[in-house]
Specification:
Elements: H1 2-13, E1 19-28, E2 40-41, E3 43-56, E4 61-65, E5 70-74, H2 88-99, E6 107-113, H3 123-138, H4 145-158, H5 167-174, E7 179-184, E8 190-194, E9 202-208, H6 219-233, H7 253-277, H8 285-299, H9 304-315, E10 320-324, E11 331-337, H10 341-351, E12 356-360, E13 367-368
Parallel strand pairs: 4-6
Antiparallel strand pairs: 1-3, 1-13, 2-7, 3-6, 4-5, 7-8, 9-11, 9-12, 10-11
Bound molecules: alpha-D-galactopyranose.
Length: 370
């Protein structure tokens, strides 16, 4: 795919780029809908990456090419909602760097991405992260990865109009091979937590339901609004499961349940990290199941297909399974004993006709590749 991006560049623009960069999609192991309230998340990077080849220009144009499309833009035309569609995740990188005071010129870019779109695997953050890393590099801006991730989130919020939290760009830029990234979204502190399923004869299976979700379609924003309403009154990240029974009676049932999800999910991330630090990956299975139940019953962001693949995986021997990402479709993750991989794969495929099941490994974050 890296070679494909270079080919697309040469075909579209007729000269050679300054370099090639890539950034991965992510799976969130646990810590869902917590990253916009100062909570904890524990994602890892996928092997699937978005590859960009980039050359800076000396004028104010941005030309973007993919294997299927090409777009020509002016820097001055970038802003909230502009450009629409996939180009926002590439051109938005230039907009946000300029907004932050980096007077960069335009660029030519070609993209080839392996990250499935609409599968809840942060394909958009992969595009944005690869492009930000490329622009930081070619203009020697010297921004660190956390700073690039914060810019990526802002560009996605403003240019693409998606009110996402801090997790996806941090995962794409800061994950390392063989680890999950523990991120505290209150302090920005991170820790690489070893995650090597093969060592314990376990596997992580990605259960892509084949039923896409769309982040910009309003349901994410609507669920987020319920959580924000609670968080505005009581900082949810500072509460513990013991506080759930005492949440204000004045809140609607919907807001109380949304808050209960966030509070208990943060506790589940803490418990999962404690187990992983002890080398007990198998022990996190029940936490994955409890996370799914909370997302399904309290926050209500699961889907019939996500419920079906996770139930089928559990029934066929998975130690735990949960939806991952925003929900409303997309993918789930299952922790599976090595000798149950085939049975779980079959059961999940039988449960949801369009499901695609594969094993995934915690992989490296964004890089310059050439
Ligand atoms: C989407 C958002 C993330 C996060 C998850 C839910 O992936 O982009 O910021 O909120 O949903 O955990």
């Amino acid at each position: 795919m890296m070679a494909r991006a270079a080919e697309v560049f040469a075909d579209a623009w007729g000269y050679g780029p300054a370099g090639t960069w890539s950034a991965p999609g992510r799976v969130n192991l646990i810590g869902e809908h917590t990253d916009y309230t100062g909570g904890l998340v524990l994602p890892f990077a996928l092997e699937d990456r978005a590859h960009v080849t980039v050359a800076p220009r000396d004028d104010e144009r941005i030309r973007l090419a993919t294997p299927d499309a090409a777009i020509d833009l002016e820097l001055a035309a970038l802003g909230p909602g502009s450009p629409p569609g996939w180009a926002a995740y590439l051109a938005g990188a230039a907009w946000v760097l300029r907004e932050a005071g980096h007077e960069i010129p335009g660029f030519d870019l070609a993209l080839a991405s392996e990250v499935p779109v609409g599968a809840g695997l942060s394909s958009s953050a992969a595009l944005m992260s690869a492009t930000l890393l490329a622009l930081d590099d070619v203009h020697a801006l010297g921004l660190d990865r956390a700073a690039l991730a914060a810019l990526g989130r802002r560009a996605e919020n403003v240019v693409a109009g998606v009110p996402c939290g801090a997790m996806d760009h941090m995962a794409s830029l800061c994950c390392t091979q063989g680890h999950a990234l523990l991120l505290d979204t209150t302090t920005g502190a991170t820790r690489q937590v070893p995650l090597d399923p093969a060592k314990d004869n376990l596997a992580l299976l990605l259960l892509d339901t084949g039923h896409p979700h769309a982040l910009a379609d309003g349901r994410y924003a609507e669920r987020r609004a319920a959580i924000d309403a609670a968080n505005d009154e009581m900082a949810l990240a500072t509460l513990t499961p013991g506080d759930v029974g005492g949440l204000p009676e004045s809140w609607t049932d919907d807001v109380r349940r949304a808050a209960a999800h966030v509070i208990t999910e943060n506790a589940r991330v803490r418990a999962a990290v404690t187990l992983l630090d002890r080398g007990d990956l198998a022990g996190i299975g029940p936490l994955l199941d409890a996370s799914h139940a909370s997302l399904r019953d309290d926050l209500r962001v699961s889907s019939p297909e996500l419920d079906a693949v996770t139930a089928a995986a559990r029934g066929a021997g998975a130690l735990g399974a949960r939806m991952t990402g925003a929900g409303f479709g997309g993918s789930a993750i299952a922790l599976v004993p090595g000798d149950c991989v085939d049975a779980v794969t079959r059961a999940a495929s039988d449960a949801v006709a369009r499901a695609r099941i594969r094993q995934v490994m915690p992989s490296a974050g964004a890089s310059r590749d050439g």
